[in-house]
Amino acid sequence: MTRLVTSEMKNLASAAEIINNGGLVAFPTETVYGLGADGLNENAVKKIYEAKGRPSDNPLILHIQDISEVEPLTIEINSTAKKLMDTFWPGPMTLVFKKSAIVPPVISGGLDTVAIRLPENKVARELIRLSKTPIAAPSANTSGKPSPTKASHVFEDLNGRIDMIIDGGSCDIGLESTVIDVTTLSPVILRPGGVTFEDIYKLFPDVSYDKHLTLDTITDTVKPRSPGMKYKHYAPEGELFILEGNIEKVQKYILENSDENTAVFTFDGIDFDLPYVRSLGTSISGSKLFFDLLRECDSNGITKIFALMPDKKGVGFALYNRMFKAAGGRIIKL
Ligand code: AMP
Ligand code: MG
């Protein structure tokens, strides 16, 4: 039985008790909902992989609530890491460090590194504080499905498989954290997110993207340094296509190729005379609704989704990255 509860204090206390007893609790963060377990308890962490059906070589992020908690989990905190932590924590940024011996191998999928984040969400931080342990937490969805941005999404996927879901409303950002490798002095972005390339560039002009992020196709030849990025992700039931090019041509293509089970994801100010049109908002800030709309399409029997190409600046690049994966790499250039 999974208990769905509000985020009031007495529920957070019983959630911490579940974590300390090796159980699983889904909780809100500012990015997406996380599926949490005691990050230093190997058996508890294994339950996360089972509940999600997650491949065991896809490592997990450890969530902490104070910067001082990084030190025991790592063997080196270099000056780049320090500056990033001071600037962007608490927030939607995960840093990859060389790991210390107290981090169980099951967390890091066999790598010698560990990913750590200090989230901003108050419920998340209070839960970590009460649990007195780093909480391992991937997104609280079934592996391969769109990430959950509401408690109801978690319930749909994991009811009966986990102990508790804490409902903290909709996630503010709605896309997973930016993952940055700080094992070298030049930061490398492994996954784009709410902390953007432009944000980091202001501090470190030598920041770069991991190679696979800038490819326009899905390929097996470049091995991503963030193992999770190689799996098909965020897939809706229907087929998603990204449309790029001259807007009149894109509008014409969509009108000619739609039927009653087609959805269109557009941005504010670009309209379509079709029954199932959803605006993501602005291209830059449109990330918040994306996963929610994918799930909405699934529950309404949508078989085809046409999505306009986001502007790849700022958070728009993170939105593009998730859209590209949800589309299985299908871009129609017009
Ligand atoms: P999720 O928890 O579902 O948001 O996925 C966590 C992401 O962080 C995945 O893309 C992982 O590959 C990445 N990640 C976690 N730990 C590491 C690590 N030690 N090195 C590189 N990437 C990592
Ligand atoms: Mg995930």
Features:
alpha/beta, Rossmann fold, five-stranded parallel beta sheet, 334 residues, eleven-stranded mixed beta sheet, 28% helix, 2 domains, binds adenosine monophosphate, DHBP synthase
Q: Fraction of residues in helices? A: 25-40%
Shape: globular
Could you tell me the CATH topology label of the largest domain: DHBP synthase
Largest sheet: 11 strands, mixed
Distance between the termini: 50 Å
What is the CATH architecture annotation of the largest domain? Alpha-Beta Complex
Under CATH at level 1, the class of the largest domain stands as Alpha Beta
Bound molecules: adenosine monophosphate, magnesium ion
Q: What is the count of β-strands?
A: 16
Mean pLDDT across the residues is: 93
Describe the structure.
The protein has helices at 9-20, 42-52, 79-88, 105-108, 122-131, 151-158, 197-201, 247-257, 290-299, 315-326; strands spanning 3-6, 25-27, 34-38, 61-63, 93-98, 113-117, 135-136, 164-167, 178-181, 188-191, 208-209, 239-244, 262-266, 277-279, 304-308, 331-333. With 334 residues, it is α/β, with parallel strands linked by helices. The protein has 2 domains: 3-214, DHBP synthase (Alpha-Beta Complex); 239-333, Rossmann fold, CATH 3.40.50.11030. The strands form 2 sheets. Strands 1-8-2-3-7-4-6-5-9-10-11 form an 11-stranded mixed β-sheet, sandwiched between helices. A 5-stranded parallel β-sheet has the order 14-13-15-12-16, with helices on both faces. A hairpin with a 6-residue loop joins β9 and β10 (188-191). α1 (9-20) packs across α5 (122-131). The longest helix is centred in the first third of the chain and has 12 residues, at 9-20. Bound molecules: adenosine monophosphate and magnesium ion. Residues 58-61, 96, 108, 111, 113-115, 138-139, 176, 179, 190-191, 225-229 line the site of adenosine monophosphate (AMP). Adenosine monophosphate is lined by residues 58-61, 96, 108, 111, 113-115, 138-139, 176, 179, 190-191, 225-229.
